[in-house]
Amino acid sequence: MVIAFLRLVLFVILDWESKIHLFAITIIGFLLWGTFVEPHTIAVQKRYFDLPCKAKIALISDLHLGLYKKQGFLKRIIKKINRLHVDYIFIAWDLSYYPKINKLHELFWPLKDSHVPVYVVLGNHDVEKPGHPIRKELISAIQATGAHLLNNNIVHLSGFTLVGLGEYRSHEDDVSLLENTQSLLPVIVLTHNPQTIKKYTERHHVDLTLCGHTHWWQIRLPFIEKGVGLFSSTLKHSSRGYLTHKMHNYFITWWIGEVGLPMRFFSPPTIDVLYIWEKRRTLSKKIKDQLKWYRDKISDVFTVKTL
């Protein structure tokens, strides 16, 4: 607000030549920030989900390592997640963006430094839609780090069941797995493309779906989100956050890498930290005891003692 006021004052008091210079400096400043600063920052967002289990999960997606971002940025991501003390790392990839095939093992090696298990699913760039035919080499590089690559697999973790589905664009997302989980625990689905959710029916038992892919405005201008239908339930390409489609809940994370231009505005790379636990429906014993103590004190004050 203060900056906008100062700009207005400068616009009024400066002559036209000075205004042109000011405008040029502002544009250059935005370009430098969007190219050299914001793409290399790492933000952290906390998210809370009410499920009958307890877990702390770091969720990231769309790293797009290769053309713009290299091994060093992934190393920073893993180092920052390690300091967050999560239980698991989930990656709803696109992993790659035109990387050098002979550099894949080196590119993803920082995953080996994770202090907790890493679970990943492939994205459209990883299955050549679009992209170079690197799937075999990419899978080899990921598995060499010790990360768990899920492609229509079910994993039973502490307190919940994780289902990793294949990529939507290559028709590998086998949602029939969700009919046969046979688990009394909450079911969390990890997939890349939120369009997979449209395949869900009443027979599919899913408590929460985690995904990426939408990118949510790499170059974003403030105050425009409502105009483009952000946070809608129609699975638009710009959607992000906690959403609902029919009877199913899903969460779309922000993305880490860049495609097209190596620039970002008001859209920093973000790690979403998911806090999952069951909300307490009743007061704890400690709070009940404290309330009883206050009630007894009040009762003593207003009680007329007789001799």
Description:
The protein folds into 2 domains: 32 residues, no CATH class; 235 residues, Metallo-dependent phosphatases (Purple Acid Phosphatase, chain A, domain 2), CATH 3.60.21.10. By secondary structure, it is an alpha/beta fold. The C terminus is likely disordered. The chain has a 6-stranded mixed beta sheet, covered by helices on one side. Helix content is 26%, strand content 21%.
Oligomer: single chain
What is the domain total for the residues? 2
Name of the CATH class of the largest domain:
Alpha Beta
Main-sheet strand order equals 1-14-2-4-6-7
Range of helix content: 25-40%
**Percentage of β-strand residues:** 15-25%
CATH architecture level-2 label of the largest domain: 4-Layer Sandwich
The number of helices is 6
CATH topology title of the largest domain: Purple Acid Phosphatase, chain A, domain 2
> Based on DSSP secondary structure assignment, what is the total number of beta strands?
14
**Which value, in Å, is the CA radius of gyration?**
24 Å
Write down the secondary-structure element order.
HHEEEHEEHEHEEEEEEEEH
Outline: globular
Structural class: alpha/beta
Give the uncertain stretches in residue-range form: 226-238, 301-307
State the fourth-level CATH superfamily of the largest domain: Metallo-dependent phosphatases
- What is the arithmetic mean of pLDDT? 80
The N- to C-terminal Cα distance equals 69 Å
Largest sheet: 6 strands, mixed
